[in-house]
Amino acid sequence: MNRRLFFEMMGTAGIALGLSKTANSQTNQDVENKLNQMGLALPEAARPVAVYVPYRISGNQVFIAGQIPPNNLATPTFGKLGADLSVEDGYIAAQYVGLRILAQLKAACGGDLGRVVKCIQIRGFVNCTNDFTKQANVINGASELLRDVFGDNGMGARAALGSNSLPLNAAVEIESIFEIKI
Q1: What single DSSP character describes residue 43?
Q2: Does residue 104 register a pLDDT over 90?
Q3: To which H or E segment does residue 155 belong?
């Protein structure tokens, strides 16, 4: 089989499987509209607060460094779950971390969230007391946001872990991995 025939066959198979670059996807405007309907807005991508990069692209994957919530909200987003903060406070903090993840993802995609194929994984850390057991409920704030924005493609494999402290006393920190179109 010659090289041209091979690639023509692979292109046909890719289209049949929905793998082409023109396969149905959301546009950046679709994502922004969904957020607006939810009463949320995408913030600017946060700058690193230490020695790291906010994201790294490898192949068709974007690895987003741990994001923490903003500290200027009406709902407290810094402190310890089970002592200073309620599960509801933690959920809101995680939702705002989800927005920060989307901001980094948008930056990684050159401003085009339409390049996002799917969420691969999110790993959430909850600053909590030793007896706190609702980490999953807290991290749902980010998981549900990503699902609501990207549909089933926003659902990734997930971990929700308790931690005795987080940087700057943030209630939540989440790192994530996404697949994007090259």
Answers
A1: -
A2: yes
A3: none
